[in-house]
Amino acid sequence: MTKPDTLSQDEALRYARHLTLPEVGSTGQAKLTAGSVLLIGTGGLGSPAAMYLAAAGVGRLGIVDFDKVDASNLQRQIIHGTGDIGRSKVESAVESIGEINPLVKVESYDEAFTSKNALKIASSYDVVIDGTDNFATRYLVNDVCVLLGKPNCYGSIFRFEGQASVFAHDGGPCYRCLYPQPPAPGVVPSCAEGGVLGVLPGIIGVIQATEAVKLIMGIGDSLSQRLLLFDALAMKFRELRVRRDPTCPVCGDRPTITEPIDYHQFCGTSSSSSPDAPQSPWDIEPEELKHKIARNETFLLVDVREPHEYQICHLDGTLIPLGELEDRHEELDRNATIIVHCKMGGRSARAVQLLRDKGFRDVSNLKGGIHAWTQRIDPSLPTY
Amino acid sequence: MRKFTDGKRELLVQASNVGEALRKLTEAHPELKSQLYQDEDRLVSYVNFFVNDQNIRDLDSTATPVDDRDELLLVPALAGG
Q1: Cβ contact (<8 Å) for B48 and A179?
Q2: pTM (two decimals)
Q3: B25-55 confidence digits (pLDDT tens)
Q4: For A39, A146, A264, A345, which has the most beta carbons within 10 A of its beta carbon?
């Protein structure tokens, strides 16, 4: 075998079984060496994905995780070992990757992947692997991939089953096209609650890594427009068609999400778990709003959700998304009686505080948001 | 969802369309209803319903016809990683 020009002797030896494959060869290996992958999460999915990508010779790996290694992780998170318990996951992962393949450059982000840092972190990588464990971060990863035009090698797992796909690639659908809205908090149990078979993320995570390697080399058919389901108990794979949704708020024909949003609000994960707990010192109940409307009282209703949420259902309020309220509060009359609402009451509670801080005196929060209104006053409204 | 179907992974129902199949399914297993419907008519958006390999959103929604050769798959969003 002729030694490829672009690879050193050590590399040629290390990657010999790749170089033997005509579909890969020195050209494909050089693409891998020049390629980069960002792994969000070094848990069950991120562990095997990172290890195989390192072994395959992907030149640069970014790993994002804010967590520390816990003994309960070790049943499946194979990049970490017993001696790593208590260490930061990225620190432990960097060490393991260095042992697998010291030729790989690793960039570690010992922090949460958030709306504030996501675009900056993801912008310098070719491919993103979603190995997160919660809906809020999955929607964030999805939106960031769509906004940056990066393929999202998606995988998720629960108990004995997993899903994998490639989103936001080559005109194909994104995660939101498949799942437009997250379940309400607590409806779908997490792996922590429901358990997960330890080997399962090994299978799904390696499928994600396989897709990343293929995308970097430009070979084969990706999982774009296909959702792969895996059932470990039945030992069955199934494949389903997924189409891009032209009305998708992020990858559709008229996107309304053009930058990362507040994903905890979107997923309702930061709203109070007790329905009786106040959301704001200035809460009003849906019934009180109904009485105000019935009595023809003068007030201004402000809706601080996102435009795509407004499209689903609204109460004819003035739409000013929470993120724009700081800049647009002067559009509102500070002497008016204002009632603010959102989906569940969390964002509007923050909006009420913001407006009161600006000197607005008569501002209230619709407790429970349009969700409570729909449940208790007008069930004909669509819920989401 | 299987905790509401006595642990069964596959269930057999006779129906001419998806809506009827889901109605019979939730009649047989009433606790499934809140998992699949957000109100009397509307399905939740975090579960996808596929007839064989096609999403009913890309077909005729709950009016999508089915016969005894078809499989209806319920594919919920999973967050675990």
Answers
A1: yes
A2: 0.75
A3: 999 998 888 889 988 888 999 999 999 999 9
A4: A39
